[in-house]
Design brief:
The protein is mainly α. The chain has one helix and no strands. The longest helix has 82 residues. InterPro entries: I-spanin. Pfam families: Phage_lysis. This is Prophage endopeptidase.
Length: 85
């Protein structure tokens, strides 16, 4: 092999090593960015789940209150009907 062929092989090897190094760096950079985004999204999800849980509790309380008031209205209507007879 003459020196020109060796130079081409060395240049190709350097280019390949540079390409691999850039690929590894790119993966690590994306991993860091995605980890940060994941933390933010996890926090938002936890907050929204807490809000949903609170709303479900309030809906259950309202449903119980509705049942109570409906029963009271039915009893009052029954009493009014009894008094009108």
């Amino acid at each position: 092999m003459n020196w020109k062929a060796k130079a081409v092989v060395v240049i190709v090897c350097i280019a390949l090593i540079g390409s691999v190094a850039y690929s590894v760096y790119s993966v690590y950079a994306d991993n860091g960015r995605l980890s940060g985004e994941n933390e933010v999204l996890t926090t938002q999800l936890s907050e929204k789940n807490a809000i949903i849980t609170t709303q479900q509790e309030r809906l259950n309380q309202l449903a119980e209150l509705d049942i109570k008031h409906t029963q009271e209205l039915a009893n009052a209507k029954s009493e009014i009907d009894t008094q009108h007879r």
